[in-house]
Write a structure and sequence with these properties.
alpha+beta; 2 domains; six-stranded mixed barrel; two-stranded antiparallel ribbon; about 50% helix
Length: about 450
């Protein structure tokens, strides 16, 4: 049987090559689809590793407009009540503030200079946008990748009078890790409702890097003119302590053994908190563009996998039916001399397997060579569409051009695509099964006929 099958495959070289190419294309695209799906899953897990089991406490803007500048106005005591729940493993609370580097210039661009009016220069010419946190490693800007610590260490809950500055701003003024700088309260800041006139001397604990992905209007929107401080420093600039400070929002990390939805539902029932003013939101919801790009990649990977299989199976069914139908006389003769239908079908299947195996092996190398290029092309197309939608949404919401907006608009930027052995085994086995089934179906109608009928039809 094997000898006869090999002889037929080599004799009908052109037909064999056509089927070889179809199986090669089917297997290659299926492998690429699986590799893209696997790479997307890996990238998703890596990107969301710090936020998949966390949620944030934010103000409910339908009834609570926040501070005069529109920031959150969450009470510290309400945050504390949330942290007392045993399901909360850790948390990050944030204070949004403005601190002046009196006597020092900020970094400007041609665009920000055009919008720097004399009045704005006088009131906010040296103002840094400050985020006070108790753990900078879990601060959204670092988690999203907008900021990256390049020197020094992150801020912790035990830090006091410490600051993280942008490396370009530090370089502009010759500052380095360990140096001390002074921050002054800004009396023109609408959120400085107490009219505080504090001066805080802080030590530079680290430097971060990162640059705006979108256009900015004012210098305070530039990454270079933002800073991360400890909670004590940010609170003092507004004349508060850590206990009396007004917090913009807080993120809570749930223990791995707890279900996030269940915990959020339970916490919403805590008494003593005015839940009309607040809302609990899954942290992943803060990155809608990222979620959309990941979802888009999954859809494209599935389309590539199932689409290639479906199209190839239909094409194979058509070609194999034509191939088998052209062998009516041969089948009639074989049946007339007493050869069983199963033996004839076995030879047909053996022929198809002899073509399929080299095609599948070749598909592994072809997919390995093309997967990265195809994957990056698909990624570019998906993220391009998502980025445009996110940009329109940001503009419609007047979110500005700072790090928060870039986090909102962040998409999947790269994929580490490679063909896994496990994926090849799946495609190899599945392809062989499909080829056998298609051959069996294509042959079934012919093999059910009588030898005389086949011989008369072939005349």
């Amino acid at each position: 049987m094997l000898h006869n099958a090999f002889a037929y495959v080599t004799r009908k070289f052109f037909k064999s090559i056509v089927i070889f190419l179809i199986i090669l294309l089917m297997a290659s695209l299926s492998l690429v689809g699986l590799s893209i799906k696997g790479a997307t899953a890996k990238a998703s897990q890596e990107t969301f590793k710090n936020i998949t089991n966390s949620f944030s406490m934010q103000i409910n803007r339908r009834v609570n407009q926040g501070t005069p500048r529109g920031a959150g106005n969450i009470k510290g005591e309400d945050i504390k009540k949330i942290t007392e729940n045993k399901a909360i493993e850790s948390y990050v609370k944030r204070i949004n503030a403005i601190g002046d580097l009196t006597g020092y210039e900020l970094i400007e661009t041609p665009e920000t200079k055009k919008n720097l009016t004399p009045d704005r220069a006088k009131h906010f010419g040296s103002s840094l946008m400050i985020t006070g946190v108790n753990d900078s490693s879990k601060e959204d800007k670092f988690v999203s990748g907008s900021y990256k610590l390049v020197e020094g260490e992150h801020l912790t809950n035990d830090d006091k009078d410490k600051i993280l500055l942008h490396k370009d701003l530090a370089a502009k003024h010759g500052w380095k890790v360990g140096d001390k700088v002074k921050l002054d309260s800004n009396i023109y800041d609408a959120d400085n409702e107490k009219g505080a006139k504090e001066t805080v001397e802080v030590t530079i604990k680290g430097l971060f890097d990162g640059h705006n992905k979108s256009a900015v209007t004012y210098s305070q929107e530039l990454y270079e003119n933002t800073a991360i401080t400890d909670i004590h420093t940010a609170a003092k600039l507004y004349g508060y302590t850590e206990d009396t400070a007004i917090y913009g929002d807080a993120t809570f990390f749930v223990t791995a053994d707890k279900n996030l939805d269940d915990v959020m539902k339970e916490l919403n029932g805590i008494s003593g908190i005015n839940w009309k003013s607040y809302t609990l939101v899954k942290s992943s919801s803060n990155y809608p563009a990222l979620e959309q790009s990941i979802s888009g990649m999954y859809k494209m990977a599935n389309l590539l996998f199932w689409g290639s299989l479906s199209f190839s199976v239909l094409l194979l069914a058509l070609l194999l039916s034509l191939w088998i139908n052209a062998r009516r006389k041969e089948v009639g003769i074989l049946l007339s001399i007493g050869l069983k239908q199963a033996s004839i079908l076995g030879q047909f299947i053996t022929e198809s397997i002899l073509i399929a195996i080299p095609a599948l092996v070749s598909a592994y190398f072809l997919a390995t060579y093309t997967a990265r290029t195809i994957g990056n092309t698909v990624l570019a197309n998906v993220t391009s569409g998502v980025a445009k939608q996110a940009s329109k949404a940001a503009q419609a919401s007047n979110l500005g051009g700072g790090a928060e907006v870039d986090g909102f608009s962040k998409t999947l930027s790269s994929l580490d695509i490679s063909i896994q052995t496990s994926d090849f085994i799946i495609v190899f086995v599945l392809a062989l099964v499909l080829v056998v089934l298609v051959m069996a179906l294509a042959s079934s109608n012919l093999l059910r006929k009588q030898p005389k009928e086949l011989l008369l039809d072939s005349e």
